[in-house]
Amino acid sequence: MEENENLNKFHIQEYECGQKTNLYRMDNYQNCINLSTMTKKSNLSFASFFRAFFFPDNYPLGVSSDYGIYQYYNIIQTGCIAISGALAFSALFRGMGVGQDASNYLAASIVWLLKDGAGMIGRIIFAWGFAATLDADCKQWHFIGDILNDIACTLDLITPYFRSVLLIISSVSNICRAITFVIHGSTRTVIFQHQARNNNVADITAKCSSLETMVSLVALFVNIILLSILPSNLIWPLFIILTIGHLWGNYKAKRSILFNVFNHQRFHLVCSEYFKTNGKQILSVEQVNNQEPILFKPLQRHHSYLGISLNHIPKHIFPSQEQLENFHNNEAERFLLLYDKQKDIFYALLKPYADNDDLIRLNFFIELISYARKSSINNSNEGLYEIINRVQKQISNLNICLDILHENNNHCYEQFKIICITHGYNFHRSLFNVDFFRVQ
């Protein structure tokens, strides 16, 4: 009788950050009894303190699956640059003559201020010229920023040997650091937005900053010891080892990020696989991120300018009045695609209410038309190949090609969208390079 009562008792398992914690039981009097009180683990362990200080709340449920491995490599690269940076600044001080009896503190102060000024100017100019492209290719830009940071350290390290051009070297060094600051500040936001799974971007940003600060704090004590006892003939070998470690850690950190949002490179890789397999399969999120170039971009099959101004469209492909009127009157169509055969460049005019789905559909049409132009004709009339063959036969007339792709309410795109969503791709956001001009 007692065993039957125990079987009928209602149990509730409680989870904390995805881990089982307390087990509760409801008795016959509707009282909630904690069955785990006597066996509850102590929360005073080092791991619990480390997690509380340096990991986001609700970890690992509140972050993407790549968060842990990314932070592992991020710790490595942060420690390496913190130590190599200290070696570089020490060399810069020696180049300025700090510690020498004959040194002119006023001259050193002026050099320091001028190099800071050069860095500020470089930061402003770089942001003006490249800020709009940082989101779309944040992995590549973030890695370029790390390379610039290492170049800056190298320049600082050689200043004691070229004191006659100290101001020029230190100014170039500070410009590199200033550009790095802009790049990292901008691209980290995109990475943290990807890693946030619980509207916790601020929490992830703050905890990542705390973790890097802790690594830098540990590196500070290491720097004090190294600068005190390290022989001058070992500075360069140590710096080279740390620089290699810094770049390796950064490369692995970028490789570990699994973006499920499309940019031009990832979308091109996904579409290429989709077309080659007759619409039967695509690359997974992990596969496409492993193939995405981190530093050197491959030669693309085409170039495209989206959201462009009418003033920037070449005259020989400028849309006719009839095309513009049809585009204006057709509320269902939110982009007008143009193609320059001479330069293999696509241009797209966008309406003000064009959304992410429209941008992905537009890029899908561009990829399919480009694939049809440059791939050998397949005689198969099954599945996606049937549409590609029809586009190939009408490739000289872009409008007819688009009519084919628009058939059955964009059926070929909708099939592509379904298989992408099934594989975990996000169609609510995109990271394409899109200009800000719209026409109505």
UniProtKB/TrEMBL annotation:
The keyword Heme does not apply. The keyword Transmembrane helix applies. Its main location: membrane. It is found in: Membrane. InterPro entries: RUS_fam (IPR006968), UVB_sens_C (IPR055412), UVB_sens_RUS_dom (IPR054549). It comes from the Eukaryota. GO terms for cellular component: membrane. Keywords: Membrane, Transmembrane, Transmembrane helix. Pfam families: UVB_sens_C (PF24160), UVB_sens_prot (PF04884). Belongs to the RUS1 family. This is Uncharacterized protein.
